[in-house]
Amino acid sequence: MANGLTYLLIFIAVVVIYTIAKVVEYKRKSEQQWRQVDKSKLRKWEDDED
């Protein structure tokens, strides 16, 4: 019983670590893409408030 629990906890830890690694990877990629954007073509967003 404890052996199965150990495998389950290891699996959960691997999934959590993998998810955190992917989030960090996508965050870095997003920041890199934002640095490459031609910011002179951006327009200021205006909400339509009536």
Give a quick rundown of the structure:
Helices cover 70% and strands 0% of the residues. It is mainly alpha-helical.
Question: Could you please describe the fold and organization of this structure?
Answer:
This protein is mainly α. The protein has one helix at residues 2-36.
Topology:
Elements (H helix, E strand, L loop, with lengths): L1 H35 L14
Radius of gyration (CA) equals 21 Å
Parts with pLDDT < 50 across at least 5 consecutive residues? none
Shape: elongated
Structural class: mainly alpha
State the end-to-end distance: 64 Å
* Main β sheet profile: none
Assign a percent range to the helix content: over 70%
H/E series:
H
**Separate helix tally:** 1
Task: Give the mean pLDDT.
Answer: 90
Roughly what fraction of the amino acids lie in strands?
under 5%
What is the count of β-strands? 0
